[in-house]
Amino acid sequence: MRLLVFCHNHPDLQPGGTEVVARGLFRALRDRHGVEGLFLGAVTAQHRERRPGTLFQAIGRHPDEMLVWLSHFDRFHLSQVDTWGLAELASFVTDYQPDIIHFHHLLYFGIETLDLVRRVAPKAKIVVTLHDFFALCPQEGQLLTTDGRLCPGPSGDGCRRCFPGRGSTDLVLREIAVRGAMAGVDLLLSPSDFLRDRFIAAGWDAGRIELMRNGIGAGAVAPPRAGNGQRRRFGFFGHINRFKGSLVALGASARLTQQGIAHDLALHGGTAHQADEFLTEFKAALEAAPDARHHGLYGAADMPARMAGVDWVVMPSIWWENAPLVAQEAFRHGRPVICGDVGGMAESVRDGVDGLHFPVGDAVGLARVMRRAAEEPGLWDRLAANITPPHGMEEAAAEHLALYRRLLGAATPLKRAMRAGGRARVG
């Protein structure tokens, strides 16, 4: 089986949840199941300087992982109009002759790439994992209004309020273009029931969206902190931006300090690519929360050491989320999660079972729950004991391999060899 994976960016340059999951799945399929493939991460000059003469560049020491540059991407329309770049990409896909093409995001590649690969690789099966709501929502795929309210789904009037400078035609054309491009896809995957339900509520065909949980890689696990009966250390893990709710967490910490509640809040994550306005707000909020510390960017190898000093993982995102990797990581290390009471967060974390919920976006409500977590005897032990090990990457890889084989019609090795021009392939 020959696999071609498309993802927006590469986890070595931008360690977001989608990038980490997509690359981890690719490597598990390669290393554990012998699947031949290539991982293509779309980047811009913001992430890595482009070298002249080619769209492609190697990254690290992995010959099967490459960076791809395409210019002129329109985030509103999810459209890539770099015709020269798309032509070179088409030639690349034609030469590679993949059996499975798996998109983990359309950012930078654009919806045109879906049409392109269908045209130049007509026998390949195309899979798209919907890691967020970009296909539904032009507001950065957040389903969040410009004034910070949760949006249940796209609507003509609602979208115009978020984009007063655009007419109805732009919004309608965007939807038609995205749905048209997705029509050529063999299967859509959703990592959560919540995300799948949002797409179905927006009119997408339920029969074409299959649930497929994300997996998380194995590794060293941080033992429980020796808390002497006190569980007052909270950790935030993720990119420091407005959507992830770092300001909410800092507001809650400041309130606890004002109430005289002993605690510690450690924020782990970088601030790259954030607007000056937000960074100014973040700095002010950090200064107003004396029991909070920002520990900066971290990598996967750093996670056990950073998790070792934490009792609770706080996930204060102000949007719905989908299948948050942070919750899986917390559970892998045996840490209960405190999160907002909506969307993929509420689906991932069971209130009162393996974590606690608070009203999404509410710093006062978060402070109330954090105080309970710090003061209620036996609460941490009870919740930690109920944590179910998260879905592993090995299990996710086996499930994806079975899916790919099903899409290919369970072809025999002989048939695969004939399709490859006589050269047998693994898978």
UniProtKB/TrEMBL annotation:
InterPro entries in alphabetical order: Glyco_trans_4-like_N
One Pfam family cited in the UniProt record for this chain: Glyco_trans_1_4
Top-rank taxon: Bacteria
Residue ranges annotated for the Glycosyltransferase subfamily 4-like N-terminal domain, each copy included: 15-216
Name the UniProt record assigns to this protein: Glycosyltransferase family 4 protein
Taxonomic source organism: Falsiroseomonas frigidaquae
